[in-house]
Amino acid sequence: PYAPMGPGRNVNEADRQAFRNALESRGGLTPTMRTIMDYLFDFEGGHKPDKSDAKNAPDRYPVAGIRQDTLRAYQDAFYKENPEVRSAMGSKFFKPGELNDQQRIALMKWYADTQMDKLDINEIAKPSTPGAIGDPKLAGLLFDTRYRWGREGTQAVQNAITAALRGYRQDLVAARTNPDDLSVPDKVDPDGTAGSRTRDAIMLLLNAGRSDALRAAIAAEIRQAKGKPKVKGGTDRHLSPNDEYRLSVFE
Description:
The protein has helices at 13-25, 31-43, 68-81, 83-89, 101-114, 121-125, 136-149, 151-174, 196-207, 211-224, 241-250. The two termini are 16 Å apart. The protein is elongated, with a radius of gyration of 19 Å. It has 251 residues and is an all-alpha fold. 33% of the residues are buried. Helix 2 packs across helix 7 (136-149). Helices cover 56% and strands 0% of the residues. The mean pLDDT is 91.
């Protein structure tokens, strides 16, 4: 379900309702993605420009978490697929504050579809395989971590997966079961790219009923690692009260 109605933490009620109206009128979104985007809009301050980075020019302030570099990558991809639109627009490139809510939603969907490497957020929330176990909160946490922290966030997720795998293996050994017989890996490489091994480890933990442990491990990893990013394309990870709030929603 959507976050409770009202001003939320960062967005007034009128803006939040306007964004929800845009979500409801947008085709091609699952209930999971609508819910995640609704939360993201609040997490990122809605329509208010983010002035926290003094290096940004005022017209490049992020809005709804959309930074200028992300917006440029999205527009490059959009124009490549729609050359007639590029011609009609005169190759215009927008600034984050110039987008409307439908355009912001389109960018968030593009991000979910193209910037999550091998992770399928909808599949994690509600697997298509009969009998497979999903976790919408884990899906939201994975998407929000990448959207907020970039590839450094993915590296934190990978470290958390390794911690969850080790806990699972220990429990199997305690139950006199060889984890190798069940093909339970002992780690995933924290390379900042969520490839097939990262995806498969997440799905293994989900189907083993370990999603609560994985969410807790991700939250712990994000909280403990501060300072300069270790992965190219990452973002300095100093947690604010708002970062703690967004973690609390999905953990």
